[in-house]
Amino acid sequence: MLSDYRLVYVAPRSGVGGVGDYADDFVDAVRPHFRDVVEHRHDGPGHDSVRDILRHRRAIDELVDDPERTIVHCELSGGSVVPFWATWKLDGDPVATATVHDPPGLVWWPARTKFLAGQKVLNHGLHYPLRALWRRLETAVAGERTFFALTAAGADSLAREYPRATAAASTLFVPERADLTPAEERPLAVGLFGLVYRGKGFDQIQQLRDRLPREIAIRVAGRGTEQLPPVDGVEIVGEVNGPDEDAFFASIRALVVPYGRRTIYGDAFPASSVVTRAIAYQTPIVCMKYGALAESDGGAVVVDGDITDVADAAAGLVADEMALAALRREVEALRRANTPEFVVQDFLAEWNKAVGAAATRSGAQ
């Protein structure tokens, strides 16, 4: 059925955060299933004015050549006001769906345009005291759309917040990466990886270093890590791509993911692209039992505690080659199972349901 449809795909540009990277792989995986796929890419959160959003809206409307044979799908994450507003009530009422990357909020700050992005106090002053009102607005925009979450906890939170919408659970697929030396044969080291921002645990590097035995090295890589304060006994690598990313994961036995609560607005249940990157590189994970990270399907040590408990678990794991090898095999199984081609079947199934329901409504009118 979808082979008769156009997919209009609204997503951040390549390289714009983890969602932009995800979008590149996602659109390649779904493209063969549609008559044609047209992409509308935009800048990251905080780059667009109200006028820009209206321009995006007009451009997306023009891409919907036949509303009865079009699906508009967008990527929604914290601060992504362009797809939030520009795909609402499109002309001709095509099927509109979205992947929500930071559920239960669709966008969290619906008014955070370019102006407010440069006014942190004003942005929070406008959104935090009125968060119940903004959530009602999100509910109105959600309507009866189908939303995808990349964790079961995320889908449950969407179902609670938006009872008229359909909430579907999928998973974050594992990108294709190089085969590395088995984790138990790599240098005695742990790593932290990812984009630096609040709640990712980079502020706890000193505590991690103080608790880990000195013979266990710590290496830190990702966008913004080069600006972290130096810590004795910690190697800060900075942003890594391509062969440099391969080399970083080949230099650690396990990835430490000490995420905590990231927002004053309430609990969020995002999937972790950092965790899937570790899986892609056949690297076991040690993480806190926070949000969707507690949903581990294997390959991870999930710690119900603080950074001290995480450090102790990581130290025990990387020193035990048998335990490390067992987790590595679990990671490899997840890598084989959660390919983009397999994961997008969740989306194809829901899209088929949505277009079938739309056709039934159209025939009844």
Condensed summary:
The protein is an alpha/beta fold and 365 residues long. Helices cover 40% and strands 17% of the residues.
What is the average per-residue confidence, as pLDDT, rounded to a whole number? 90
Give the CATH topology of the largest domain: Rossmann fold
Percent of residues in helices comes to 25-40%
Work out the number of β strands: 12
Q: Report the uncertain regions.
A: none
Task: Report how far the terminal alpha carbons are from each other.
Answer: 21 Å
Radius of gyration: 21 Å
**Helical/strand content category:** alpha/beta
| CATH architecture designation of the largest domain | 3-Layer(aba) Sandwich
Instruction: Please indicate the count of domains.
Output: 2
Principal-axes geometry comes out as globular
CATH class of the largest domain: Alpha Beta
How many H/I helices? 13
One letter per element, helices H and strands E, the order comes to: EHEHEHEHHHEHEEHEEHEHEEHHH
Q: Biggest β-sheet: count, sense, barrel?
A: 6 strands, parallel
Oligomer state of the chains in this structure:
single chain
Lateral arrangement of strands in the main beta sheet: 2-1-3-4-5-6
